[in-house]
What we know:
The protein is 44% helix and 18% strand. The chain has 221 residues and is of the alpha+beta class. Helix 4 packs antiparallel against helix 5. The radius of gyration is 18 Å and the shape is globular. The two termini are 18 Å apart.
Amino acid sequence: MYVEWAAKLPHVIAWRSTVPPGCPPTRILPDGCMDLIWHDGAVFIAGPDTTAQLGTAPAGSRFFALRFAVGTGPGVLGIPADEFTDQQVPLDAVCPATEQRRLSEAADPLAALEDFARSRWQEPDPAMVAVAAGARAGRPVGAIADRCGLSPRHLQRKCRSTFGYGPKTLARILRLQTAVALARSGRPFADVSVSAGYADQAHLSRDVKALAGVPLRELVA
């Protein structure tokens, strides 16, 4: 069973999950976010993914986590996002082992994770918030750079440290999220391709398969 809700911190979603018996692997789509996860006493950071990951865990496994919105995680964790891209990193790789132990042994893991994040909280860079908004809106990279007052080279460097990858990859991932949400709401795929900003339905199909690993129809099903 998976449940999520708005955390007490801005730009953060709290979630918990218990793996039921016979649960198949979970396909986790890239979303530009970073998660701080407690899993049966182990605490780790799930970095921003470039392609879908398959999550597997034994029945009865418990997860408590915070999902930091696009560009928010690095400020809290104090490490550039691209050092976590496509990786799961133990928390004690970036903070003292005593902090890891405190979270690992917490009676209320989610409250402990929120306390940890609150003590290190930093508001995201407004320029990077604007970059994410531009990428989500499908604006060209050059236009995003101009709007934020950044050179293309500086934009590329800032995006990698903030989001874990460059602006073009970020735009593809955010567009995927939009497309999947529209398709799951029952919109015809032809409408999804237009609304999400793809050139045509074939472009939608290719991009979803490349990022998610399976066709859009399978994701919706």
